[in-house]
Design a protein that fits this description.
The structure is a single chain. The protein has helices spanning 2-14, 17-48, 52-63, 83-97, 125-133, and strands spanning 73-74, 79-80. It has 148 residues and is mainly α. α1 (2-14) packs antiparallel against α2.
């Protein structure tokens, strides 16, 4: 890597074709060496895990048994350790973050249908056949895969 960096600095100073060729040569060698070292490293790691038990033992050793979930949480005044206490603590926190609604409560939307409905059209079999016959089969479908 030192030779590559030195060749790069030389090329930056001189800007000649020879210095560029030297830099490219060392860059290629460093790139290939790193690729080979990574391959050897990952092969060595893969061989060391002969079973799932050894794999998970190594992972747990790295993590040192940390599950990522705290056993207790606190809001500064209360400490919660059970799931119910934690849920209540979060509920209290978020209820204090929101403002109460002033005035009457809005009525919930009971239907999601549009206010104006279209009349349903019931085509006859003849109309369906005519529409299918008008489709062109000599051109490709559009982006929605519907024939034109």
């Amino acid at each position: 890597m030192r030779r590559r960096n030195c060749a790069f600095q030389t090329h930056k100073k001189r800007g000649t074709v020879e210095s560029q060729a030297c830099f490219k040569k060392w860059r290629k060698e460093v790139k290939n060496a790193l690729k080979k070292l990574k391959r050897v490293h990952f092969t060595r790691i893969a061989k060391s895990f002969t079973s799932p038990a050894t794999f998970w033992a190594a992972i747990n050793r790295i993590r040192q048994g940390n599950t990522g979930l705290p056993a207790t949480i606190s809001n500064g005044t209360k400490i919660a350790s059970t799931e119910q206490e934690k849920a209540d603590l979060f509920g209290d926190y978020f209820s204090n973050c929101t403002l109460p609604v002033s005035g009457p409560m809005p009525t919930p939307i009971t239907t999601f249908l549009p206010t104006s409905t279209l009349n349903l059209v019931f085509p006859s079999p003849q109309q369906i056949s005519t529409a299918i016959n008008n489709l062109r089969d000599d051109i490709a479908c559009g982006p929605d895969d519907i024939p034109v």
